[in-house]
Structures are given as structure tokens and as C-alpha cells.
Amino acid sequence: MKTLKILFAAMLMMPMTLLAQNQDPQEILKLSDQRVQYQLTKNWDGFISLFADDAKLQHGFGGINSKEDYYKSLQSGFITYTSIELQDRDVKFYGSTATVTGRMLVSIDMRGEPSSYDYHLLEVYTWMNGTWKLVYCGYRDYKTTP
After folding, report:
1. Nearest Cα to 86, choosing from 139, 33, 143?
2. What is the pLDDT of residues 46-85, one digit of tens each?
3. What would the DSSP string read from start to end of 114-145?
4. String of b and e for 33-61 (b: at least 16 CB within 10 Å)?
5. Where are the domains of the chain?
6. What residues pair up with 86 in beta bridges, in sequence order?
């Protein structure tokens, strides 16, 4: 009976042990950097592969896209990212979820018109089928409180 209890306790702890091995902030930051690199090089297939199938992307103006809708808009050439700089990023883990918060400075060309933005960034990753997938990526105007 004692052996069964020990075996049962070990089985319960195994998923937490496996999960803890994947809670490396540098791994999450690499994925965040990779997302940016894909945007700058227009590698839309690579970019979209980072996202879970049911992921949502929220833009600075408040609009929300599904992964599929955003992929179509990227392929259309509507927006060209000319520079993206990530600053002050912080990674936090909550079970099988990781968040990245920080600041994102973006320059784009939209329909021939250049624009620059300063955003608060929130990325939410979840551990799925042995890998981290982006389930939410959103940004809003960067404002500081006095």
C-alpha cells in the first residue's frame, strides 16, 4: 500500500516537474524576438507558426483578429514593418502559461504612409503539445502615469 501511495504521488508530481523544466524566461524571450524577426523579414509562415490555432491578436487601435484573419492581412502587403524595438520586457510564469510585458516601438508603412508607434506589449504563451504557443499578442498606446 505504501508503494502505491508513493507511486501515485510521483505520478501527480511528474507533470509539474516536466512543466517546471520548460519555465525558462530566455526561451520565451527568444520566441518573442523570433516573432519580431519574422515580422521584419516578412516571413509570414514562420510568424504565424508561433501562434496557437485559436490565438487572438489585438492592435493598438483596439481591433482584434483571429490568427487566420491576421495571416491574410499580412500576406496582402497592407502593412510593412520597417522597425520594431522591444524594451523593458519581463517574463512571468503562471502554471502552463507565460506572459511577456514590456514596451514596443514600431515603425510601419501602411499603404505608402509611414507611421511610428509607442506601445505597451502583452504576449501570452501557453505550453501545448510539448512547445510554447502564442495565444494572445496585444499592444496599446504607451502612456505613463504621473
Report:
1. 33
2. 999 999 999 999 987 778 999 998 888 888 888 889 999 9
3. EEEEEEEEEEEEEEETTEEEEEEEEEEE----
4. eebbebbeeeebeebbebbbeebbbebbe
5. 24-141
6. 104
Does residue 79 contact residue 110 with C-beta atoms inside 8 Å?
A: yes
Q: What is the pLDDT of residue 15?
A: 52
* pLDDT reported for residue 9: 44
* Beta carbons of 52 and 67 less than 8 angstroms apart: yes
Residue given cell 496582402 in the structure block: 76
The correct CATH number of 24-141 out of 3.40.50.1000, 3.40.50.720, 3.40.50.920, 3.10.450.50 is: 3.10.450.50
Alpha helix positions (H), the chain: 2-21, 25-41, 44-49, 67-75
Cell of 110: 501602411
Q: 3-class SS at 62? A: coil
Residues of the chain with pLDDT under 70: 1-21, 144-146
Pairing of strands 79-94, 64-66: unpaired
* Residue 11 pLDDT: 43
